[in-house]
Design a protein that fits this description.
The protein has a domain at 72-211 and 231-277: Rossmann fold (3-Layer(aba) Sandwich), CATH 3.40.50. Strands 1, 2, 3, 4, 5, 6, 7, 8, 9, 10 and 11 form an 11-stranded mixed β-sheet that branches. The chain is 29% helix and 25% strand. The protein has helices at 11-27, 33-40, 57-64, 82-85, 93-102, 118-123, 141-154, 187-191, 232-240, and strands at residues 50-54, 69-70, 108-112, 134-138, 159-162, 173-177, 200-209, 214-220, 223-231, 244-251, 269-277. The protein starts with 10 loop residues before the first helix and ends with a strand. It has 278 residues and is α/β, with parallel strands linked by helices. Helix 1 (11-27) packs antiparallel against helix 2 (33-40). One of its GO terms (biological process) is methylation. It comes from Rhizobium lusitanum. Keywords: Methyltransferase, Transferase.
Length: 278
């Protein structure tokens, strides 16, 4: 898969190249119109949510570094959309269902990619969490700093933060809601860094596709963040090889996305999963 077009040349030369390529694709018939439209979107003066298509996280990050900010690990974007993320969304209800069913048998969870404790804030009034229940958020250092500071101000003593997954301790439940799009490694590798494999995995808002893995760049605030759209079969195989069994799967049609500059690659599918070890 070729890397994206949008970096590495001056703007006039880049504009001419994109325009010529679009004209050539139109000349080959109607089918390439989607491709031409996507490439021409590079020239429009409007912000795009998703830009470019890359074969790996590293390639996408290298492209993003040519922008103002790259990645999520920045203090200034930690609070972007924080209030919205603390609300309960329709796609949260399968997660709430499974956590509620597991609560009698678990004493804590690691909320991987849990931002500043957004799901804790969204869910705590809907779940009978005991006083000894441990909710540990694992995220990037800038997000952890912001999360710890806010939790201290709000007096949320049961909400803890770590920026190394091994520091979360032995947890029976691994929650990854919106994690997989931004994770720079296979999930199996992250799980194997923990002191022991969690008995339960709840993964939500996983961006999937039937073809090859694609990494695009999502604009979040002023930063461009690598965003994975993973091959579903490979994603599931990576988890089940550790001994997990898929118990449940749900779809989230409203979180299906098209890459603005590469519409010919089709829409992603967003899904959630519950896996159990053994």
């Amino acid at each position: 898969m070729a890397a994206s077009l949008w970096f590495g040349s001056s703007w006039p030369a880049q504009a001419r190249s994109i325009a010529k390529g679009a004209v050539r694709t139109v000349g080959h018939g109607l089918a390439p119109l989607h491709l031409a439209r996507g490439r021409l979107s590079y020239l429009l003066p409007f912000p795009r949510r998703f830009t470019g298509a890359y074969p790996s996280y590293d390639a996408a990050m290298a492209a993003a570094r040519r922008r103002t900010l790259a990645g999520y690990d920045h203090d200034e974007i930690a609070t972007v959309a924080f209030g919205k993320m603390c609300e309960v969304a329709p796609w949260d209800y399968p997660v709430l269902f499974w956590i509620r069913n597991l609560l009698p048998s678990i004493d804590g969870l690691v909320d991987a990619g849990g931002h500043m404790g957004t799901k804790y804030r969204a869910f705590r009034s809907l779940l009978p969490l005991g006083v000894s229940f441990q909710w540990v958020v694992y995220d990037l250092p800038a997000i952890v700093r912001a999360g710890q500071s806010l939790a201290e101000k709000e007096g949320l003593a049961h909400l803890k933060f770590v920026d190394r997954i091994e520091d979360a301790g032995r947890m029976p439940l691994f929650l990854g809601s919106g994690l997989m799009q931004y994770l720079d490694m296979p999930l199996s590798r992250l799980l194997q860094q923990m002191p022991s494999l969690p008995q339960h995995l709840i993964l939500n808002k996983v961006a999937l596709r039937k073809g090859d893995n694609i990494v695009t760049l999502e604009r979040i605030g002023r930063s461009y963040v690598p965003y994975h759209m993973r091959n579903e079969a490979d994603f599931i195989a990576d988890i089940t090889r550790l001994g997990y069994k898929q118990i449940d799967r749900w779809t989230i049609p409203s979180l299906s996305h098209t890459i603005d500059t590469h519409p010919e690659m089709g829409r992603s599918e967003s899904a959630g999963f519950y896996f159990q070890l053994g």
